[in-house]
Automatic annotation (TrEMBL):
GO molecular function: NAD binding; oxidoreductase activity, acting on the CH-OH group of donors, NAD or NADP as acceptor; transcription corepressor activity
Keywords of the record: NAD, Oxidoreductase
Pfam families reported in the protein's UniProt record: 2-Hacid_dh (PF00389), 2-Hacid_dh_C (PF02826)
Species: Megasphaera cerevisiae DSM 20462
This protein's name: 2-hydroxyacid dehydrogenase
Keyword Oxidoreductase: yes
Organism placement in taxonomy: Bacteria, Bacillati, Bacillota, Negativicutes, Veillonellales
The UniProt record lists the keyword Repeat: no
């Protein structure tokens, strides 16, 4: 019987995964293995791995001689050495389409909250202050410019949802043809122009070595003093210390962040306590339906490979050249 190990998890229930693997006749073994040595010792006879936060290196792969597939909860696979996996004939699968509606909703919720200063005013009312003028100036949203950094599925959904609000929408994505943007009424702009001209900048890029701290002091310096920054993608794309400095120096007006470089947030993080910052605990992916879909698809990616099939959500497609999957 094939064995699949779960390296680490913080879900209160694994009932969905257990059901899928039982149905497929595969042994599913949850663990809490966080270090490389723990994973090698605990998962040595693994045919497949399911991972949440654990980093899977070449060293770990070499310590798991039967390993055929690694499946990650979520979209990003920056915690997995893709090159090493491909060299060793190991499929890497993810779940790229389970929370498009949820993340785009969260991005737009943060946008509206920051723009209309909802959380700020709510806190003021609870403190006994009934005075709308403390939020001045608030400009009309219609006619403002929304700049999207990245134009994948989630950013496109944000663009669709923003259109009825009368926003002027532009996007930067070096991997997407401008025609794909204009088809949705979105103008292509180079990154620096987008930063300079946008009233709202919303980050939807994947985390790679090229996007690490893409939003840094220099990028924030280009933004308008009245602009707001939204990030629902990956924390390390935004240099949080730079954001704190920009907010403190009134280089930008506000920020709505669902993801941070370090999660949970550090107690001494300068963003805490800033009235022009909205922070949520990496919840943008979540709804009951999206969690069910995520858990089902993360299991199915493993099952497909162990049953000899090309997985639906294969990340490292070059690996197929050395495999006999059908």
């Amino acid at each position: 019987m094939n064995k699949v190990y779960l390296t680490d998890y913080d879900y209160p229930s694994l009932a969905v995964e257990i059901k899928e693997f039982q149905r497929a006749g595969i042994s599913f073994i949850p663990t809490q293995s966080h270090s490389a040595q723990e994973m090698i010792d605990t998962c040595r006879d693994a045919d497949g791995l399911v991972v949440q936060y654990a980093e899977i290196s070449a060293e770990i792969m070499d310590g798991l001689p039967r390993l055929k597939v690694i499946s990650r909860y979520g979209v990003g696979v920056d915690t997995i050495d893709l090159e090493a996996a491909t060299q060793r004939g190991i499929c890497v699968v993810n779940v790229p389409d389970y929370c498009i509606d949820e993340v785009s909703n969260q991005a737009f919720a943060l946008l509206l909250d920051c723009w209309r200063r909802v959380t700020f005013l709510n806190s003021a009312v609870h403190r006994g202050c009934w005075n709308y003028a403390i939020a001045k100036p608030i400009m009309r949203l219609r006619g403002q410019k929304l700049g999207l950094i990245g134009f994948g599925k989630i950013a496109r959904e944000v663009a669709i949802k923003a259109t009825p609000f009368g926003l002027d929408i532009a996007a930067y994505d070096p991997f997407i043809k401008p025609e794909a943007m204009t088809a949705l009424g979105v103008a292509y702009q180079p990154l620096q122009q987008l930063l300079r001209e946008s009233d709202i900048v919303s980050v939807h890029a994947p985390f790679t070595k090229d996007t690490y701290h893409l939003i840094n002091d220099d990028a924030l310096q280009l933004m308008k003093p009245a602009a707001i920054l939204i990030n629902t993608s990956r924390g390390p794309i935004v240099d949080e210390q730079a954001v704190a400095r920009a907010l403190h120096q009134h280089k930008i007006a506000g920020a709505g962040l669902d993801v941070l470089e370090q999660e949970p947030i550090r107690p001494d993080d300068p963003l805490l306590g800033m009235e022009n910052v909205i922070l949520t605990p990496h919840i943008s992916w979540y709804s009951e339906e999206s969690e069910q879909e995520l858990k089902t698809k993360v299991a199915m990616g493993v099952i497909e490979v162990l049953n000899g099939r090309i997985p639906t959500y294969l990340v490292n497609k070059d690996v197929l050249a050395g495999l006999s999957l059908r």
